[in-house]
Amino acid sequence: MEIVEAPKVVALPERNYAGIRTVTPFKGMFLVRDRLMKELHARFDQGDTFFRLHVIDMAGEMHVEVGIVTGAAVEPDGRVLPGVLPAGDYATMTYVGHGRRANRTLLEWIRGNDLAMDCVEDPAGDRFGCRYELYRTDPRTERMKTRWQTQLAIRLDR
Q: In this protein, which residues make up the domain named AraC effector-binding (predicted)?
């Protein structure tokens, strides 16, 4: 894993998006992500693509969403629903390469700096106020995921 931007805290504005949300086991989750990306890209040709993790239970089910940032709210259309990435202070880090190691690095940085995540334990898993991977590399033009430049973002507790 190559760190492109070291972990830091940034204030991010509220951003509207169009997304498709689903529940999937961790194993096979990225195949589901890729399928949902193709579905969204067929309808939206501009905007940053991201993968949002609403509830994480790596031994059980993951509540996830694939979205594309839009300039304004979108109308619901079948499986595609409007959403908002909430404003707030986020711990962020941008990397190329192995996502699991990058996530671990950012989580260790958050803990090491005594920061609190906007996250609550839930019977379904860890429920995040907002946690996502934003793909700075367009997945439609670069097929090799290990070459994608990805920004991790986890909203911090107020």
A: 5-157
- CATH code at 140? 3.20.80.10
| Residue 95 belongs to domain spanning | 2-155
81-115 pLDDT tens trace:
999 999 999 999 999 998 999 999 999 999 999 99
Instruction: Tell me how far apart the alpha carbons of residues 116 and 113 are, in angstroms, rounded to a whole number.
Output: 9
Q: What is the pTM of this model?
A: 0.95
pLDDT band at 158 (very low <50, low <70, confident <90, very high): confident
> 2: Cβ–Cβ under 8 A, 6 or more apart, which residues?
95, 96, 97
In total, how many domains does the chain have?
1
**Helix, strand, coil share (%) of the chain residues, nearest 5:** 20, 50, 30
DSSP classification of residue 52:
E
In which region does residue 54 sit, left (phi positive, over 0), alpha (psi from -120 to 50) or beta (all else)?
alpha
